[in-house]
Queue: 3 jobs
Job 1
Amino acid sequence: MVVSFPSVTGWILTIVLTLTSLKISEAEFWTRTPGDPFIVVDGVNNTIVNLVWEYSEPEDRIVSVGINRRKQGTTDETPIATRFGQGSRFTSSFTVNATLRSKYMALEPATLQLKNVKNGEEYVYTITVRYGAARGILVNWDDSVFVDVKVPPRIITLPARTTRNGIGSNLTLICEVAGDPTPNITWTREGATTNQLVNAIGSVLNLVKIQLNDAGSYRCTADNGYGVVSSLASVNIICSSHCKTTTVLLRLLQGIGWTDSLRTRGSLQFENLASNLTAAISSPYSRPENEGKRPYYINIKEFSLRSGIVQAIVDLQFSSGLIDPLQPLHVDIANGELGPFTVDTQLVVNPSTDETTTATSTSTGQPTNQVYADLTIMEDFLSEYRDLSNQVSKQLVDSFVSEMDKAYQNDDNYVRTEVTGLRTGSVIVSFTIYFKNAVIPSEGISNFEAAISDGTFGTYQVGHLTLLSPGTSTLTSTPPRSSQPTEFQCACDRTLLVIIGVLVSIIIVLILVIAWQHRKLGK
Ligand SMILES: *[C@@H]1O[C@H](CO)[C@@H](O)[C@H](O)[C@H]1NC(C)=O
Ligand SMILES: *[C@@H]1O[C@H](CO)[C@@H](O)[C@H](O)[C@H]1NC(C)=O
Ligand SMILES: *[C@@H]1O[C@H](CO)[C@@H](O)[C@H](O)[C@H]1NC(C)=O
Ligand SMILES: *[C@@H]1O[C@H](CO)[C@@H](O)[C@H](O)[C@H]1NC(C)=O
Ligand SMILES: *[C@@H]1O[C@H](CO)[C@@H](O)[C@H](O)[C@H]1NC(C)=O
């Protein structure tokens, strides 16, 4: 480090003079101090932090100003900035410790600017101002401030967004958070009144021996006084028998910034909005008067944009014996509000396909024993998949079928699932679910939809599900889609060959005609 001559002399002089200086009550000198402790919040007001001191003495009496820092509880001081005042022989502006210039700037007369203060950079800053009093006596004034950096809460481990649980099973939801000070975590149930609160404190919520009454959206909230964050978990119950699924269309009128990724199930945008909407829909059913009508599951199937309005297609599964299970929802939206959402007061029950844009599934349709569907799995398509009897295909098919058996384990009506083909486009699995008794396709598929509602199926990431509604009797007897892409390619090639053949024939005929014309002319 380069230290200039006047600076060295200045330091020596300062040290000598210090020995003779007096200390006087601070209140008479300081007209402004930063206030101790000085709180800075990461991400809120930590980028430029000014510690401002002001004093009553005129500048021409100030001999020096020095600002040091030390860790709290230690005495080891590091000089940050110093300057000589007009009352000294070495007037100059502040010099900031060269190794710390990226962190600090000093402004006259006595302001220290801290840049981008992070957690872990908590220091006690001490300013010492020296001034020449009457008869050459030097007086020292100092002031200390502790800069405390707080960090707002942040959720590190989100609880599972959606789960489906068998009656009597146990479920543990975990919500791990960080922050300084350590945040308090509370769990609440959306829509519940205070006397029904979950009352769990801490990062873990245990639901033991789950009953239908436990269905709903749970929220973990982390608060440390410097910010609040929360996350939702939707707890669904597997219906083992006598359930019926109702599809409703909700129009969200305000406050949803539409982005195209809302069309994609599994995108962060979709999942965030779906969590909020699921919680809002579950709320009326958590009120004591509506508990008997609690849905087994709420599944947001799709968001779409129609005439500038965001539409949500939602499946709700209820006990089949319930009379008017949608009544609590109707009542809630009658004033145009559903939780934080502004909604159309009218709920469209069992919307027709032309009201849903992508028409991935219909709630109408003839009862059938076989439900056909395509599911996109986010995996690379391997060439072996073209042949279903191949060992590689078998592996995928077997694990798919065993996941299906699991998803339908409590459905007495379920017989089996058969994979009828694997096609490209990631991997599109065509499959047929067989039922003992005829089901409406949209109801037959509902257990499966619930199983993939978190965007996964077993170990697979899943994308689009397309319900291939049979509609006609021909489709009930034959699988709806050819599962041999090779055959399809052959057909393509044949068409191409025919076209080329025709073109070649035309050219040959033309050449012959021209040649014949030439011969005629030549004669
Ligand atoms: C930063 O924000 C916190 C919380 O709002 C407040 O207490 C503190 O005084 C602020 N600090 C500064 C330097 O503005
Ligand atoms: C500057 O700061 C460093 C710590 O980063 C310290 O070790 C050093 O002594 C300081 N230099 C001066 C001249 O005070
Ligand atoms: C659920 O938890 C309870 C209490 O901790 C325990 O007795 C029971 O065996 C658990 N049930 C299952 C299915 O794990
Ligand atoms: C956590 O909650 C307790 C009890 O309500 C309270 O005393 C404490 O200040 C809270 N802590 C934070 C960081 O908010
Ligand atoms: C979900 O709700 C929270 C408030 O509870 C809000 O901060 C967030 O922006 C909402 N997200 C979406 C995608 O609606």
Job 2
Amino acid sequence: MELIFEKSHTGRGLSLLPASDVPEYVLPDEIIRTENPRLPEIAEVDLMRHYQELAERSFSPAKGLCPMGSCTMKYNPQVDELAAELPGFTQIHPLQPKHTTEGCREAEQLLRDYLCAYTGMDGISLQPAAGSHGELAGMLIMKGYHADCGELQRDKILVPDSAHGTNPASAAMAGFRIINIPSTGKGLVDLDALRAAAGEDTAGLMLTNPNTLGLFERDIREITGIVHEAGGLCYYDGANLNAILGAARPGDMGFDIVHLNLHKTFAAPHGGGGPGSGPVGFKEFLADYVPKHLTAFYGNFLVEMKALAYALTIGGDGAYPVAVNAVLNARYMMQQLSDIYVMAGEPCMHEFVISAANLKEECGVTAKDIVKALFDHRMHAPNMYFPLIVEEALMAEPSETESRETLDRAVRILREIYDLARTDPEYLKTAPHTTPVGRPDEVQAAVKPVLKYENRRD
Ligand SMILES: *Cc1c(COP(=O)(O)O)cnc(C)c1O
């Protein structure tokens, strides 16, 4: 497929804008371009076809199941999109006089109230633009708090090895040192190791729950207790809140700070580069350290409005079925596959992790081969080679929005692939056979990445 720049013809174009009906303003010379920017020149019909073709070549929940563990690629109700598109929401500007945006700020407050109710927190900042951005904000809240208490020696964050990869990264970005806490054989936090690591230099704990094996930390009150006793604070990675929504609240488990991913749990699409929203919730005693309106004014406001529409739809009563179905769907799929595939830890919450290590050993078929074969069935891959603590990992999250029929089909496909691994491993090793792109050269892509378009016509 040609790039849009390759379809460009000088002088061709589209004139979408009407003639200006406001006085022209002449810009100062020093900020006027001397050369035109290099933009593709293309007729509207060709532009439309270009993006349509791109859309047809890509895959999304609009096309089929995307069981990407941790990422929560679920169906987002169209009505929430429509609500966020209301002109009263789309036509505001962050620098507008405050009295003209009262309605929007009231809507934000309503969302904060819902998120406080779902998480058991006292306050919520809607500023962070992603989950990992919320983590960074949370870490800086912790840092500010300890500094104010005169406890600057608290420079270490305890991170279980089953945490999401962004957790240690965010803590490091905030200037903390990371102490790795190992898991037990059952995939849960090793309490003895946690006790041994917690001390006067502990700033806090970052816990992903359910963890990246899809397991709920059973000793969660004990975990937060150990950290608090040592004088640290407890951070809850709530990106995957759909696993516990309406059933349990981080605030009740003893957590001081939590972040959520509105672009996972709360009806904004996830992927494609955003925009996202990763609100950070906090207990009252941390209110002074929370981000103020510094950069993004109101945060990613339209993502917030989608989340509000979703919260208003499910309300308090509808939240629990979200968690029930997220967990039920994952357990159902896991159960239907566990006689052949090796599972890492159970019972799972909203996601489960398959280890293909045995298939690799017995027939040379890797997690990657399985994933490539799924593409031939118009099914997106689970997350693969994550979490790092499981060999040949495939991490699957069917999500709460999929039907029994869709899950049954996915199970059938995964069982077929398992059989093929034993009877015709070569077929899997050369999959996919029907997609527009087969197996890109991943080694070349890693060692010699082509990251920018060179205009070949010059
Ligand atoms: C997705 C995810 C994150 C990071 O969220 P981004 O918006 O991608 O930065 C953090 N933790 C967990 C558990 C996640 O699933």
Job 3
Amino acid sequence: MSEYVSTRDLHEQVSGYSDVLLQGLAPDGGLYMPVDFPTFSTAELQRMVDKPYPELFVEVKKGFIGEDIPLVDQQGFADRAFDHERFPFVVGGNYVPVHEISTNFYIQELSHGPTAAFKDMAMQPLGQELAHVLEVRDQNWLALGATSGDTGPAAEAMVKGQERLALIMLSPREGMSEFQKAQMALLSGGNVFNLSIDAGFRECQDIVKQLKREPEFAHLGAVNSINWARVASQIPYWVSAYLQVVPNIGDPVDFVVPTGNFGNILAGYMARRMGLPIRRLIAATNENTVMHEVIQTGRYAPRQEHLITSSPSMDISEASNFERLVYDLFEQNPEAVLEYMAELKIAGEAQFEEFGLPRTALHELGFDSGSSTHADRLDSIKWVHEQSGRAIDPHTADAVTVARRKAVREVPIVALSTAKPVKFESTIAEAGVPVPARELRFVGIEEDAKEIDGFVELPNSSSAVGEFILKNVDLAA
Ligand SMILES: *Cc1c(COP(=O)(O)O)cnc(C)c1O
């Protein structure tokens, strides 16, 4: 149990959880996938109903870690990751609460963590696990990543103050909200390096990819959702949502997910494979519709550029986790994955039918999809407020938009809420909904950030970034 293979490895060499956690991407450029899946019986799910979230977290995730981390430590990490200090707004101990906002229409809140985005749900436990594994191995870990706004703060909150961890985070000069910039600025210093690149998110990602191809930087870790450990840490809240919503275990539930790099919904897909009775996994995209298109038509066509939208954390031109689905579609055959990826590289797109799959192959795995525009977001923010008095953020609004179209009354539908409205107050105001009062911890952070020099400004050049790293960061592992 808990062995991993790369989606591209013809020799199918196995790695353990700790290696997967530290490495992110496999050395051959593929993504790690577990060889076997732990599964739940109805009785096991029933026993989880009343478990506090940190216990449910370990129950669901332990099968992916195996012997690599002793079970008592796993529980200790989860207890520390999900506690009142990190989640001050949580009431009654439910870290992932579900609210019914209209008959059989639910929203699950996943953003009560330190940086007000759902990415904390995985990053917080990961920080604990990383510190443990590095201590055991007497190693340090340095990660290099790019952010469009939410990964940055969440990853920095994970690394901050941890002795064996360090993080270099590239971000675009324009495009992040003032709030997100302030979050990152306030976390800078010590083992956290913020590089503001004179370019967009896509260029930041390209610089990261380019540098990781160079021998000096090849060992740097990854914090985005290509890291399997992140996906595995997101499965438990799917289980929790299901258990909160159904009267009887076994009843079907539909889920709608605001989708960017396909990490979150992939966790739902894994939950379904593990036996959670999810009926449909519905991906909601914004105007960047790459994943909507492939789910509906079987044609996967990464774009040259992404559009900049008011749900910026879903602004992608390709979805890095798609390869994990491809691996399953081809029945875990790395040779077929390599052929598919080669075609994609040469032609810039690939169709399922050319590979002997039906165009609706992803429907057969349980997926459906829809897309949402800026006007839809505003309308859904308003609708949720009218229904329930709650304010939602624009990413959640994309999910709500699609859920409103796809809901069937007899089956509960859960829209995952991936950020707090405080991160995107101007869009809430634009929708004509009163902006909620800020929690104390977020009051005035934009002003506080002005006092410090939180970013080093660099040109759009991988050699400039490489030079900065060599000069300023201790690369010793
Ligand atoms: C990262 C993010 C998403 C997209 O999640 P993926 O796992 O990349 O699909 C959606 N909403 C918010 C607020 C995010 O921060």
